[in-house]
Amino acid sequence: VLENQDLQDSIKPQKVEFHSLNFNSTLHWQPGRAREARDTVYFVQYKVYGQSTWQNKDDCWGIQNHVCDLTTETSDIQEPYYGRVKAVSAGVYSNWSLSCRFTPWRETMIGPPMVTVIHSNKSIILKLRAPRSPYKRKRGGKIPMTNYYDLLYQVFIINNLLDEQHRVLVYEGKDKVIKIENLRPGVSYCVVAKTYVPMLDRSSAYSSRQCTVL
To answer: For all residues of the chain together, what is the average pLDDT?
Structure first.
C-alpha cells in the first residue's frame, strides 16, 4: 500500500493553471515529480465556481498531453471556473490537482491589434484591427475583443536611426484609422501598436513591426 501511495504522490500533476489569450483558454500542467512513465495518462474535469458537480472534458480524458483546450467550456466569460487533472500510471491513480479560480474576463490576456501601414509622401496612415475572440456571431464572423472591453490603441513609432528600444507614443485612442504626419522623406520608420484596457490597467504585447520608407 505504501508503495502505491508513493506512486500516487509522485505522479500527481503539478502547477495546474489556466493560460488565456483573447478568451482562447487552455488548462496546462506539469507531470508529477516521478520521471514521467511512458504510460502516464491524464484526465481533466472542470466546473463553474459554486457548482457541486465536476464535468468530464471528453477530449482530454486519458490523454498523454499536458494541455487541454477549455475555450468552449469557459465561454461564459464573467463566470469563475476551476479545472483539475489527475494522472494514471501502471494502474495507479493520483489524487486530483486543482487549478486556481479562473475568470476569463478578468484574466485573459488581450493580444495586440493587427496593423496595416499605407504611406504617402510625408505621412503614414495606419489601419488597426482589434484582436478577435474565438466566439462567433450568428452570421459566422469572430466577435472582436472590443465587444467585451473598452479598448484603447496605443501606437508607437520607432525611427530606425535611433535605438530600437526608443519607441515614441504617437497616438492613444479608439480610432481604427490613424494618420501620423510631418515625417521626413527618405527616412525609414517602423510602427508597433498595443491594445490597452483602462479598466484593468493592462496592456497587450507589442504588435509585429511594420516598417516603411517615405
So the answer is: 91
